[in-house]
Design brief:
479 residues, Aspartate Aminotransferase, domain 2, 2 domains, 7-stranded mixed sheet, 5-stranded mixed sheet
């Protein structure tokens, strides 16, 4: 079985096998007529159940043939212009090339003696991102697995900086539209069940700073500790951006850690719309997800902090790995900053992207989808079949099919939910769903510059058709 180990004696086998795999994927990408085949779990499960993992196939070609059946044929393809559901982007080729390189070399980004140049590349990219945020030379950060981990680490740093003797007194303030990872992080950090204070949003789904000020003052009056305010630059549902300058002013007034979850909106750092992030430079920490609006493969995220010294709260020394003597010798070990130990060289993907395309090239792609969302909003606003929730700041459209002859909100909810499921089952397009004021809405998350206004119009027609069919059948049965 040593013949399957990647080394100097198997380099040619690696080249041939990897090429065969790339050709399979390329063929699938070229032939995909829809984002999804529409297969159900019940239909696909038997093929997986029939695989005997204790009986190897013996060759990569045979395994790739099998993979076509159990995965590639029925995968959901984000590159298709009618995949409009979640924050999953089509990926740029330089990043995919880097993925092949980093997987083969298999550097681990915890210590210098496992990564060497990889450590320095990651540090340069953190410094570059910090500069784009507007931080000074004291900033630092580390790549993470995604926005949830970045948010968790940011709140860990905030908790330690708060220096509260009683954790039950700590409070985290965030908008009602923020990501669920804020609540999850609070629980993981041992904060009390009421630690996260939800701040209402305005009509544009942005945090109301008047309400935030009121809650911060109440916190102080009650003898609690305002540990952190989590502002969102690009909410998952609406793409809304909280008023960062005003939030920064309140955080400074109350001595509160300011974290900006820019997992979605981080693409603005390289966009012609950079001004939408004004005020982010005042945050103590920022989450960026390159695998959203920088068009990188999963995973590629980072936590960046204004004061690199605060990362000491994640530092633990192990004699076998990163002894104190290494720090004293100023050997750069990224594990000193990270919640993870073994960690992929995901930074290489962004490095290759910037070296091939440049920051303006990436920002241009994000600007294209924001422009597209603006055109989609006009389309929806002019279409009497739909109610659109809010004009987008980024590339998300939230809307609801409203038939002219049906008045039951519950029945309309069910029609929208049915339309989404029926569309997914057809494979013709993939859209997401959410709730607005307790009612069922549909959602387009536009991250593909290949998507056109015509694609949006066609999917709207399909949704209206499915919803209308459901209502027609339901009303017939009711009569």
């Amino acid at each position: 079985m040593r013949s399957h180990l990647l080394n100097d004696t198997t380099a040619e086998q690696y080249r041939l096998t990897a090429t065969a795999a790339v050709e399979r994927v390329a063929a699938q990408l070229a032939s995909a007529k829809k984002p999804f085949t529409g297969i159900s779990p019940q239909e696909l499960a038997p093929a997986l159940d029939a695989v005997d993992l204790d009986k190897p196939l013996g060759s990569a070609d045979a395994a790739l043939d099998e993979l076509d059946t159990v995965y590639l044929r029925d995968a959901v393809y984000f590159h298709h212009p009618r995949y409009l559901a979640h924050l999953n982007c089509p990926v740029v080729i330089p990043a995919v090339v880097a993925e092949a390189v980093l997987s083969a070399v298999n550097s681990s980004l915890d210590t210098w003696d496992q990564s060497a140049g990889g450590t320095l590349i990651e540090q340069r990219l953190v410094d570059w991102t910090a500069g784009r945020i507007g931080y000074g030379p004291g900033a630092d950060g580390v790549f993470t697995s995604g926005g949830s981990q970045s948010n968790l680490q940011a709140l860990l740093l905030a908790r330690e900086e708060a220096k509260a003797a009683d954790a039950s007194l700590l409070r985290v303030f965030t908008s009602e539209c923020s990501h669920f990872s804020v609540q999850k992080s609070a629980k993981l950090l041992g904060l009390g069940p009421g630690a996260v204070v939800s701040i209402p949003c305005d009509g544009d789904k942005r945090m109301q700073t008047v309400a935030l000020a009121r809650e911060l003052e109440r916190c102080r009056e009650e003898g609690a500790v305002p540990m952190a305010v989590v502002a969102t630059a690009g909410t998952t549902d609406f793409g809304s951006i909280d008023p960062l300058p005003e939030i920064a002013e309140l955080c400074a007034r109350y001595g509160t850690w300011m974290h900006v979850d820019a997992a979605y909106g981080c693409g603005l750092l390289v966009s012609r719309r950079r001004s939408l992030l004004d005020g982010i430079e005042n945050a103590d920490s920022v989450t960026v997800d390159y695998h959203k609006s920088f068009f990188q493969p999963v995973s590629s995220s980072a936590l960046v902090v204004r004061d690199g010294v605060t990362l000491r709260h994640a530092t633990y020394h192990a004699d076998y790995l990163n002894p104190r003597s290494a720090a004293e010798a100023r050997i750069p070990n990224q594990v000193d900053k990270s919640l993870q130990t073994t960690r992929r060289f995901d930074a290489l993907k962004l490095w290759m992207t910037l070296r091939v395309m440049g920051a303006d090239g990436v920002g241009g792609l994000f600007d294209e989808v924001i422009d597209l969302a603006g055109e989609g909003w006009k389309l929806l606003a002019a279409d009497p079949r739909f109610d659109v929730a809010v004009e987008p700041q980024l590339s998300t459209l939230v809307f609801r099919f409203i038939p002219g002859d049906v008045t039951s909100p519950t029945l309309i909810d069910r029609a929208n939910q049915y339309a989404r499921k029926a569309l997914f089952a057809s494979g013709d397009a993939v859209v997401a769903g959410t709730t607005v004021n307790g009612r069922a809405y549909l959602k387009f998350t536009l991250l593909n510059p290949q998507t056109t206004v015509a694609d949006i119009a066609a999917v709207l027609d399909l949704l209206a058709e499915h919803a209308g069919q459901y209502l027609g059948e339901t009303l017939v049965h009711a009569s």
